[in-house]
Amino acid sequence: MDGDDLQRHAAERAEELPGMTLEYPFGPEWEVFKVRGKVFMLQTVRGGEAMVNLKARPEDGEALRATFAEIAPGYHMNKRHWITVTPGPGLTPELVDELVTESYLLVVQGLPRRTQPVDPETFGRA
Description:
3 helices; globular; alpha+beta; six-stranded antiparallel sheet
């Protein structure tokens, strides 16, 4: 998956999620995706390379970094709770969907129940 595909696919998935807003608080080069005012995904290009920052459980982040060369500790983020995804052959649209959705749900989980746009325990599970 190349950089354009990565960012386009991640943004398309994010836009499907209830309560999502897109903002540019750091200027036009940073797309910041939020749910109820809390960040769950950031996108930018650094040094000519596309990157997507996503929240992850610490144990999941470790496993992902060990498995995928395209996944590193979060750029300019808490390295324990965020990952940075960059283009590469190991990425699939399904993996990107899963990572974006999981980041969103982690943030939703931390919101007060009355403001959660979805139930994080059941969203996306049939």
